[in-house]
Design a protein that fits this description.
4-stranded mixed beta sheet; 3-stranded antiparallel beta sheet; alpha+beta
Amino acid sequence: WNFISNKLIRKEDNRLFGVYRKGESYNLAFLDDYAFTIGGLIELYQSTFKLYYLKKAIELNNNMLNLFWDNDNGGLYFYGEDSEKLIARNKESYDGAIPSGNSVAALNMVKLSKFTNDLDLEDKINKQFFAFGEEINKNPLGYSNFVIAFMSYYESIKQIVITGNKEDADTKAILEKVNSKYNPFSIIILNDESSELFKVNSFLKEQKKVNNKTTIYICENFSCKSPV
């Protein structure tokens, strides 16, 4: 990520580039470049719980929506509004050997909406599914990553909120236990009760430590079970 941040992002407007060669960055990035980079940042956050990566994912996702979103019909165009204008501005959705930018972006937005409780993002997700739903229904096997995104949204990804210090032994033990099982329809948020995290998701202010011990909350649709 340090290389991408230093070499492939234009400082004045955070525009992502697609190519770096012989000391020069060029070619404005396409949708796929944005979607996969954002997905990588989300995974970096889930692996390290460094808020920096989550904030960068949110920032890039907002930039992506500003540049690629179709305000009339939903979905994301392949190239940005600041790119060279071609005869047709297509929207790719087919998931071949590499998933499409639209399906990866949809899954990213599902996850980011759960990290942030951003209702505007949920509106974009619904429009994304409506934009491509008819063709996906005709041949779901050709849109496997889109189907995963759809399942993740409508099965409702659970938020596993762990309130505590990631360096504490009990927090590490809980994370090891949670990560020992494959949970595709869940995300993990480490709540260190910092003001920076609360700027990303103010809802987390309510998920406090109990008896000053690392505490787990299982949340879904803006409500949480009793803390453990």
